[in-house]
Amino acid sequence: MTASTRSTLGAALAISVLGLLVLAGTSHGAASPGTFHFTEPLVGTRDFTDTCLGPGATGTVTGTGTGDGRYTQNGPPTFAFHAHGTYTADFRIDFADGRSAVGTLLAHTSTSATNGSEVTSTEATQGSAMIYAPDGRPLGPVTVHAILHTAWRDLNDNHQPDPDEFTANVDQFRITC
Fold first, then answer.
1. Of 73, 41, 37, 74, nearest to 60 (Cα)?
2. HSE (side-chain half, CA atoms, 13 Å) at 54
């Protein structure tokens, strides 16, 4: 899974969890804890040719992502939200050159929001996969490490995510073969 995919997933998770909690409401000034769980299909095409996988490493990703965690929110008159959890992606990548990869990524996430207008998230991801030749022979392992920081700042206070309101930074991203 690429950094842009992880960024999109992290931002979508933060916004969707935040939206659900805002709609759920809390009593005046009370802290309200809870848990969350979701499962989603992973589908897409990604280009890994600029990594150690080399030419022909454009592939179709399929799999399942699962998120679990805990949150705490404070209600009116101020609003604050914090969530932490894990996201696990079990995946298969079928590359254009006939190779394939089967693996798992695990991300530890922490997301905070204030006053409903700023959401920040940090995610540390690590994972591994086995690369297989077109004939099914194992070619060797691949590992992935990344730290991702995302933010949504509702600059126009419309409580809707607009394209110019997102930032994402990836630190220490590396794929090793």
1. 41
2. 4
**Which range, 2-6, 101-105, 119-123, has the best average confidence (pLDDT)?**
101-105
Its domain, for residue 120, covers: 3-176
User: Which of 6-15, 66-75, 116-125 shows the highest mean pLDDT?
Assistant: 66-75
Q: Cα dist. 70→3, 47, 64, 126, 128 in Å? A: 24, 34, 21, 21, 26
**Beta sheet of 80-95, edge-to-edge order:** 31-47, 58-74, 80-95, 100-114, 118-132, 138-153, 166-176
Domain total of the chain: 1
Using an 8 Å Cβ cutoff, are 21 and 73 in contact?
yes
Supply the DSSP symbol for 127. E
Do residues 100 and 138 lie in contact, with contact meaning Cβ atoms separated by under 8 Å? no
